[in-house]
Design a protein that fits this description.
With 304 residues, the chain is mainly α. It is built from 13 helices and no strands. It has two domains: 152 residues, UbiA prenyltransferase (Tetracycline Repressor, domain 2, Orthogonal Bundle); 127 residues. The protein is 81% helix and 0% strand. It starts with a helix and ends with a helix.
Length: 304
């Protein structure tokens, strides 16, 4: 009886530790960002197929894209563990919180990257495999290890990392890349600066403390807001060009006008706002999240 009683006492503790460890491994893949990236990848596959793609190809593509994005995110968390602990926004991540060993996260990230490329080459096509590998390297090495701590253009150049899932989704269906695929890529690429800089504006103190040369830290809020407007204008233009080049119906054009106008309005109000206030910076950041959801949904609706 005493042995049974001891097992009953120990088991919940072990279960809790197991649950905590699993949750930590999931968290290092940045699941919220992962959902957005796989969503754009799926939408690109629908647009490329002009309908519903092959279920088997779509499943393999989503699995490989998720593994690539999650693996590179794990490498990002491993590399940034020294600055994550300095920032309130990231201090509770698994590594700075002491929930998981840094070396375990590194090997986990490498394993996911290898598995991603293997799945894509085996079950999709070679181009999709290469794109997974390049996207993984772009975020894990080019952005995380080279750009992020060296230049205020880290977000601008690094924006391509978040756009690679679109190319992956397109290539999985067609085996190639068209002008429409690259224009969809550019939508995310040009969206990244106003989206990321809006967050950086009201988290400027944290980035300054961590020594990350985000645009507001290096150039100040006024210059950052002007540049955000510039990229927003380019984004608007790119979205309209896509409506002509991409052979979409009026559902996409209507959505592009609505969502671009909304994000442009928020960015404009952010620029007009006093540099010491961040109400519209927060609203711009939130609006930019809905922008991606709305725009890519409109692209899918525009193909039917």
């Amino acid at each position: 009886m005493s042995a049974i009683h001891e097992i009953r006492q120990v088991s919940p503790s072990r279960l809790n530790r197991l649950t905590q460890t699993v949750s930590a491994y999931i968290e290092v893949t940045k699941p919220k960002i992962l959902i957005m990236l796989t969503f754009t990848s799926l939408c690109a596959a629908f647009v490329a197929a002009k309908g519903i793609p092959s279920v088997s190809v779509m499943f393999a593509m989503l699995l490989s894209a998720s593994l690539s994005a999650g693996g590179s995110a794990a490498i990002n968390m491993w590399y940034d563990r020294d600055i994550d602990v300095m920032m309130e926004r990231t201090a509770k991540r698994p590594i700075p919180a002491g929930l998981i060993e840094p070396s375990a996260v590194l090997w986990f990230g490498i394993f996911l990257g290898i598995l991603s490329v293997t799945v894509a080459f085996t079950f999709v096509n070679p181009l999709t495999g290469w794109l997974n590998a390049i996207g993984y390297f772009y975020y894990a090495v080019v952005y995380t290890m080279w750009l992020k701590r060296r230049t205020p253009l880290n977000i601008v150049i690094g924006g391509g990392a978040g756009a690679f899932p679109i190319l992956i989704g397109w290539a999985s269906v067609t085996g190639g890349l068209s002008a429409t695929a690259w224009l969809m890529f550019m939508v995310v690429f040009l969206w990244t600066p106003p989206h990321s800089w809006a967050l950086a504006l009201y988290k400027n103190d944290e980035y300054t403390k961590a020594g990350i040369p985000m645009m507001p830290v290096v150039k100040g809020p006024h210059s950052t807001k002007i540049q955000s407007l510039f990229y927003m204008i380019l984004l608007f233009i790119c979205s309209l060009i896509l409506s002509v080049n991409g052979d979409f119906n009026y559902f996409y054009l209507g959505g592009a006008l609505i969502f671009n106008s909304s994000l442009f309005y928020c960015t404009w109000k952010m620029w007009k706002e006093d540099d010491q206030q961040f109400i519209w910076a927060k609203r711009t950041f939130i609006c930019s999240l809905f922008y991606i959801l709305g725009m890519f949904s409109a692209m899918v609706a525009g193909t039917f």
